[in-house]
Amino acid sequence: MEKKFVIAILVENQPSVLTRVSGMFTRRAFNIDSLTVGETEDPNYSRITIHASGDDSTRKQVMKQLRKLYNVKEVKVMEHTKSVYRELALIKLKNDPSTRQEVLSAVDIFRSKIVDFSPSTLCVEITGESSKIEAFIALVKPLGILEMCRTGVVALERGSEFLNSDTCVK
Q1: Does the pTM of the predicted model rise above 0.90?
Q2: pLDDT greater than 90 at residue 29
């Protein structure tokens, strides 16, 4: 049975590391639903978060192949019940006087915020789990989405567990 899973990968902050990681997915014909990457608390390391789909066998194979890659220091599945997942979306909507109150109500209900306002458009910033963002999109789509950009999922483990350069053998 195909399931979604999130993997956190701690890598050396070097050129072409992301190419090697994403290339491994391409070579093995694994699909990536979203990929985010950024520098960690230690500028020598970056953290890659991959949201993907597959059965247990696929997930295990992905983990095995990632651990083999040069510059990869740590690989961990982020279990949904033990992690905090977030995503950010910027959504540009029509600023139509006839639907403005509906947009403002949706912004309030979903605890999002308007980050740009012009006579013809509104730009809304929303953060949360992907399901929250999907629900917001479904609600405002009939009101006129003009443009949208999403970051992809980022995740951290709850509690005292963490993934950083101190946990890696140097």
Answers
A1: no
A2: no
